[in-house]
Amino acid sequence: MLLAALPARPIEKCIAAASLLAHIIIAKFVDHLPFYCQMKHFKRDYSWELSQSTLSDSIRRLLHPARTS
């Protein structure tokens, strides 16, 4: 049996998939939904306990290459 290689992660050592990170970015910058509101939605809808620093650090690490270019 052959297994395909896993796709590259958008952020090294981060378990969040690209689709989740895209959702967070769109909610923040397109829908103008603050991180604390996103945290409430994740807790209510998925029972995920996320901190505001986790969300902001993930987005900062993801967007850092764009800022330094």
Describe the structure concisely for a colleague.
With 69 residues, this protein is mainly alpha-helical.
Can you tell me about this structure?
The chain has 3 helices and no strands. It has 69 residues and is mainly α. The chain has a domain at 34-69. The longest helix is centred in the C-terminal third of the chain and has 17 residues, at 52-68.
> Could you state the order of secondary-structure elements as H and E?
HHH
Count of β-strands:
0
Point out poorly predicted stretches. Answer: none
Shape category = globular
Instruction: State the end-to-end CA separation.
Output: 42 Å
Class from secondary-structure proportions: mainly alpha
The biggest sheet, with number of strands, parallel, antiparallel or mixed sense and barrel status, is: none
> What share of the residues lie within helices?
55-70%
Overall average pLDDT: 88
Attribute tags:
69 residues; mainly alpha; 3 helices; globular
Would you spell out the secondary-structure blueprint of this structure?
Blueprint: H1 18-29, H2 35-46, H3 52-68
